[in-house]
Amino acid sequence: xxxxxxxxxxxxxxxxxxxxxxxxxxxxxxxxxxxxxxxxxxxxxxxxxxxxxxxxxxxxxxxxxxxxxxxxxxxxxxxxxxxxxxxxxxxxxxxxxxxxxxxxxxxxxxxxxxxxxxxxxxxxxxxxxxxxx
Length: 133
Description:
Layout: E1 3-10, H1 14-25, E2 31-35, E3 40-47, E4 50-57, H2 63-71, E5 74-81, H3 85-94, E6 105-106, E7 111-116, E8 126-131
Parallel strand pairs: 1-4, 5-8
Antiparallel strand pairs: 1-5, 2-3, 3-4, 6-7, 7-8
């Protein structure tokens, strides 16, 4: 793992959350993207090397909608940058972590992603992400 790539935050109302984080961070978002396969709209902010990803459900049955229903708005995941996602997934499996997807999938911000189940990672949803080259 290279570094924390971003922190994902689940939100109910994207315009309201964007206004809040614009004031909080003192910068405008640099990217908005809908990931149809995950039924989520994302908005990214960056301050220095730190990225914040806001996540809003685009469908009531999406993972984000279910997360907010169960836990409310707030931190959803921590993403770590990796150079070789396949190798890192194998390493994680070998260390006893439970992968939520067996193959990397296309995520937001031009990344391949894989998630580790929170029950195998101390209660935290971990995302591995690799830049698509």
